[in-house]
Design brief:
The chain is of the alpha+beta class. Helices cover 23% and strands 37% of the residues. It has 6 helices and 13 strands.
Length: 284
């Protein structure tokens, strides 16, 4: 085994896609990529070709790590946006080489914080990251289910562009990477107010319509409510997101914190967990 590491800018598109698809073979969720899907993800999630790496055994691409960088709460933060190793190279030291290389890149870039998410069942990966100083900071969940629409006008709501969310003092910057407004630029956001125009929270989401122009599905990236959270308030938020449509609508939460009371509400409505992850953070 003769492992060499290259930046993605030194690789062909085919080498990158081969490294990704081999790296995630037999993974807990299907992550196979085409060049189009890969580069869409690269742009949408702000991933960096010059700071991401592919490991080669001779001429063969056998592993990949994708990295992105943002300023979060005033600190330059790195995100590991996917580490994949071909099945026959797992458990023989390649992961250690990859981790050493990306931490070197983070240091060169002056990062203060490193973050990632790992599938809860992927105990080997979680142990690896812990060995390099990452700590579990949150439990995350993807939920899927359907809610009957309700015409609940308990709250006032206001649509805003996602990029305006950071101008509100109650916006949470420190959430999983894919749930930050920068990763959901093509989405929508709402601010919620009580009858005295006091803010009570916000949401960040994407909506999908069918060919008849009827709202069909909502992807929820953030729903954050201030103060005491009641079922009536949560119902009012979903009513505002759907603009008071009353037919059944499918929802999926993306990397939502299991401690969020909105998640508890959805579980009580019969939503099912499709994937569970842990968020891990390392101070550099």
């Amino acid at each position: 085994m003769n492992i060499q590491i290259k930046r993605l800018t030194e690789c062909t598109i085919q080498e990158i896609i081969t490294a990704w698809n081999r790296g995630f073979e037999g993974y807990f969720v299907k992550l196979e990529m085409t060049p189009e899907l890969f580069f869409n993800r690269l742009v949408n999630e702000g991933l960096s070709l010059p700071h991401s790496i592919v490991a080669f055994d001779g001429e063969e691409p056998v592993a990949i790590v994708m990295n992105g960088f943002r300023e979060i709460n005033g600190k330059k933060t790195a995100w590991n946006g996917g580490t994949g190793i071909a099945p026959e190279y797992r458990g023989n030291g390649v992961s250690t080489l990859l981790m050493e290389e990306i931490l070197k890149i983070y240091a060169e870039e002056g990062c203060e914080v490193a973050t990632l998410e790992a599938i809860k069942e992927n105990e080997r990966a979680i142990r690896l990251y812990a060995r390099f100083g990452y700590e579990v900071t949150d439990s995350l969940v993807y939920l899927a289910g359907t809610l009957e629409g309700k015409n609940n006008s308990h709250l006032q709501s206001e649509f805003i562009r996602p990029e305006k969310l950071p101008t509100y003092s109650f916006y949470k910057q420190n959430v999983p990477w894919q749930c930050q407004w920068q990763s959901v630029k093509a989405g929508e956001a709402q601010i919620y107010f009580d009858d005295k125009r006091n803010p009570v929270g916000y949401s960040l989401f994407k909506r999908v319509w069918n060919q008849e122009g009827q709202l069909e599905k909502v992807f929820l990236f953030q729903v954050e409510l201030l103060g005491e959270v009641t079922d009536e308030t949560v119902q009012a938020v979903f009513s505002a997101i759907t603009e008071h449509q009353i037919h059944p609508i499918s929802y999926m939460t993306v990397n939502a914190s299991q401690s969020n009371p909105v998640i508890q509400y959805l579980l009580e409505q019969g939503f099912k967990k499709t994937t569970e992850q842990v968020q891990m953070v390392k101070t550099l």
